[in-house]
Amino acid sequence: MDGYIHSVETFGAVDGPGLRYVVFFQGCPLRCLFCHNPDSWKMGEGEKKSDTELIADILEYKSFIKRGGVTFSGGEPLAQPSFLLSLIRKCKKHGLHTAIDTSGVINIEQSRSIIAEADMLLLDIKTFDAELYPKLTGHTIDNNLATLEFCEEIGKPVWIRHVLVPGYTLVKERMEKLAEYLKQFKCIEKIELLPFHKLGEYKWEELGVPYQLYDVPVPTEEEMAMAKEIFGLS
How far apart are CA 113 and CA 161, in angstroms? Predict the structure, then answer.
């Protein structure tokens, strides 16, 4: 089974519990305005790898990640469902914890069997504002929320990720609505608030893709503190 990989990180410390081997899949249906890896968007590009080859490399680090695991990120890993499912099953055979870092953009009818196989989800909620969501990502919010609801239904552990972009998601009323919505979900173990940053701007320029957030500042310490208080993280 072959798939397309953007890159890997062998000692990831921020993509799930413990020290982790992180596989960044190539290809994503979303076109987020704040994406810092637009070079991961196109499907069928990147490095072509077999599941056997990739698992062999992962197992080289098993002694280091045995208390952490493997995280499948992107791009959007669920956009290569057969490849992802095969990798998850191979990891499980070797006793490795698996996490899917996803935007939830893939229809739940197509992704549910894969989500059920993984040990946990890192679910990126771009915004809870249904009108803003298409402007921010190019897609509707429906599949994103359906993914979280499915995890609640089957008791799948979830870490929520939410990028705070001044003027877009870093708006008090929008954060309050999202925080209130998330309170109902018992499957959520953690909420991570990630500050918007400027590190990926040069990639947009290199790709010749128009970038709309040049004038958007990074969040201040005061704004991050306000956001943490709203989500009960302070």
Answer: 22
